[in-house]
Amino acid sequence: MLGSKKLNDQQLVDAIKNGDKDAMVQLYKDNGSSIRNYVLKNNGNADDAEDVLQDTCIAIWEKIRNNQLELKAKISTLAFAIARNQWLKRLNKLSKNVQMDGINTEKMTAESDSFQFDDKKKVQEVLGMIGEKCKELLTYFYFDGYDMNTIAEKMNYNNSDTVKAKKHQCFKSLQEQFLKKYSRQDFI
Questions:
Q1: Are residues 72 and 115 in the same domain?
Q2: What is the DSSP letter of 183?
Q3: Which residue has better confidence, 97 or 46?
Q4: In sequence order, which residues have a C-beta less than 8 Å from that of residue 65 and are 6 or more positions away?
Q5: Environment class of residue 165 by beta-carbon count within 10 Å: exposed (0-12), middle (13-18) or buried (19+)?
Q6: What's residue 31's pLDDT?
Q7: pTM of the prediction?
Q8: Could you tell me if 81 and 107 lie in one domain?
Q9: Does 44 fall in a domain?
């Protein structure tokens, strides 16, 4: 069905619904470089990147086949969000299981928020200083890997845009508290 013609998002969804295996190949190729780059830039290796890419494509395939996907955004946006959440969950799991010299290392970035945490205990201590709502929201997003819509439901916010704005405010508050309490020398 695909041949040399690339399908648009709706055609791709329809092809997957019809069981077209070539659609999976297009899904994989279309999203491969952005997902691989993301994982590699966030403490992953080539095997990690490949695993996340495959898991992401399978998740999208299953959502489409089970009629659980409404096409409200580009498939590439959905794929990246799923991959990002999967990778953050893996990093979180690894940070719980693997300790190096008594210090957990985890680099966490999201959209425009980029702040490096080298000691999870220090971050958890500072989380207690920013209020329960912010702590809950940031925990859902960074540690549990929930997307904005899920957080909106869990925390009774109007929509994902509200959550995104609140997350940004909470992150900035966390960052300010962290920088007040610690300096670079605390991590060297």
A1: no
A2: -
A3: 46
A4: 16, 17, 19
A5: exposed
A6: 92
A7: 0.50
A8: no
A9: yes
Same domain membership, residue 82 and residue 114: no
Give the 3-state secondary structure of residue 50: helix
Clarify whether residues 13 and 76 are in a common domain. yes
- What contacts 163, CB < 8 A, 6 or more positions away? 137, 148, 149, 151, 152, 155, 157
Q: Give me the CATH number covering residue 38.
A: 1.10.1740.10
- What whole-number distance in Å separates Cα of residue 138 and Cα of residue 173? 11
Which of 80, 98, 116 marks a domain boundary? Answer: 98
| Domain enclosing residue 159, as ranges | 101-188
pLDDT category at 109 given cuts 50, 70, 90 is very low
Distance CA 83, CA 68 (A): 18
For residue 76, the tally of other CB atoms under 10 A from its CB is 14
What is the three-class DSSP state of 35? helix
Region 154-183 average pLDDT: 84
